[in-house]
Structure formats: structure tokens, C-alpha cells
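Please, structure for the following, as C-alpha cells.
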Amino acid sequence: MDTTTSREDLVARAAEIAPLIAKHAAWSEENRRLHDEIIEAFGTAGLLRMRAPQRYGGHEADLSTVKEVITQVGRGDGSAAWTLSVWSICSWLVGLFPDEAQDEVFANPDARVCGLLSPGGMGTPADGGLVVNGRWQFNTGALQSDWNSLIVVAPMPDGQMAPVMALAPTSELQIIDDWHTSGLRGTGSVTTAARELFIPAHRLLPMGPVLHEIYASKANADSAVYRTPMLLTAATTTAGTVLGLAQAAKEAFFERLPSRKITYTAYESQREAPLTHLQVAEAVLKLDEAEFHADRAASTLDAKSRAGQAWTLEERARVRADLGRMVELAKGSIDTLKSASGASSIYNGVSLQRIARDIEALSLHAILHPDTNYELYGRILAGLEPNTLYI
């Protein structure tokens, strides 16, 4: 596959498979994992290798491209978009590891790598690596992934305990099938566990340097794609899921609108009602505003990485705030349209009910939660130091 595939081409490919994704959305939700045809379509369209390095046949796409691609996927199904966003994040994370680890993972450039950014286990030093034990919840896509990026706490050379990223084949982990949720059911975000699992040194990456943009890969050192801050990159990669859900809600509402009336009123057509005019205007404007904040976050990351510019704390915190605002606005847009859709929208066959549950789940995610991100931004604006390392 051509490794110089353009943004427009990748976005077009994603838009082309969105109907197939939508067709299988109910199956994915019921079975709590993506339908195999969705994963096959991701691979055929080249979406699984969006963030893989070009030297392995990947696209090495920037964040603005990833955001737009995942937005198109999200129009079909939020669970499919969220899973693709996690695979994209973790594929990018592999690009930060020592090159030997990349050779191992990207022997298949379409390798599906899932993972988390919060510690769930401990690492004990052993000859040539760490022995890992632990449990990791919310492990999106683990049921259908080849590799898993885990965070363990392990002793550093100075004796201090610190988080370390560890890459393991998913086949070496125990799967605990506990993903029974109200939203994003199709992501299969199960718990994984490791017991006395050896991880060799080349598949370990201490988080301390990573949080300061000091990465282990030599081959990717000159690539702008692999110079962005880790947490901001991960958070921004998820933006397309949020925007895709809001766009899907808008499309679903207007598709139903011509045939709907407002029960117990004189309005035989809902689109004749002034209330509806106010509701749709508010919802669409909120979506427009959400897109602005997502675009600003992604374009800021892309531009600064290309220019090799240092980041200020305020710039970092503003990206977090942009993403929190994006979620709040997109959820507000969806909530307005869902409220205007009447009781008939609660049927399983109406996509709006699933979209509303999915955006509710997303809005609670720690990396996207509006209040958490606003507080961090306000704290920096007030002249205080951040109260988190994840910035």
C-alpha cells in the first residue's frame, strides 16, 4: 500500500465504510465487540496503519488526519470509532519504544495494539527485563488485539518507584470478560491480567522521560509525528469519536424529521414547530463549536511538532480544555436532538438512543471530562503549577 496516502484519500476510505459499520453497530453492541467485517474493513482501507511509521508501510498520519478519519467512522458507530482511536493511540505509542520493539510489533503494519495509560500492575526486576503482575480495566479492543501496552510501577535505577510502559502479546494475558455497560458496549473494554509475565527490556519504556517528550526510538527521532506530547496526543486522537457521534445524531434526527409529528399538539409535522427550529439551531451550532475546539487542538499539536517548538504549560492545558469543551458541546448537541426526538427514539432500532448512551460514557472518561480539564486550564491561567503529570 502507498505510504504517502493523502488525508483526503484516508478520509474518503473511512466515509466509504461508514455504512457497513452502521449496519453492524447493533451486532457489535449485543456481542460487546466489533463485528469481524468492521475490522476487516479497517484493514482493507488502511486505517489500522494510520499511525504506524512509514518505514514499515504505515501512513505516519498527523493528528488532523486521524481526527477526520475517526469522525467518519464515528458517524457509523461510536464503539467502532473509539476502538479505532485506541488502536491508533497505541500504534503511535509503539513508535516511541526502542526500535527493536517496533521491528517486532510492526512486522505486521496492521497490528492491532490496545492499551491504557493508568497503572494497574507491578514490575519486578529480572535478568533482561521485568516480571509483571497486575490487572488492567477498561482495556478497549483487547479481545481483538494482537498486542497490549500496559502501565506497571517498577523500581528505577535510583531506587524510586515509577510507571513504565510494557508491551506484551495479548495472547500472554488473561482476559476477564466483564464489559457489561450502558454505553460503548461494542468496544469490548474488558479487564486483562498478567501473572508472572516476563517482559524483555526492549519492550519497556519508562514514563518519566516520555512525559517530557524524551522518547526511546532513534529511527523516529526526526519525524514530527513522534514529537508530540504523549497525553495530549492520546486525548486528541479520541476527538473524532465525539464529533462522529454528534454528526450521526444530527443525521439521524433530520432523517426522521419529515415523517414526525408532535403528539398531543396541533403540529402534524414537527418541522413546522418553532420549538423545533430553536432546538435544531442550538444543536447544530453546538456541533460547529465542538468542531472548532477539536480542530484547534489537533492543528496546534501538528503545527508545533512540525516546527519543533517547545510547549508552554498554558498551551498544554489549553489543549486539554479544548477537548473538554468539545465533549461538553457535542454532548449538549446530542442531548438536545435526543430530547426533541420523542418517545419513539427509545426503541433499539433507532440509533439516537445508542448515540446518547455512547456520548454519556465518553463524557465520563478521565482524559476528556470537561470539569477536570477546565480546572487544569484555570489553574494554569491563575499562575499555579499543574496538579498532574499528565499534561
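The domain at 7-111 is CATH 1.10.540.10 (Butyryl-Coa Dehydrogenase, subunit A; domain 1). The first strand starts at residue 113 and ends at 115.
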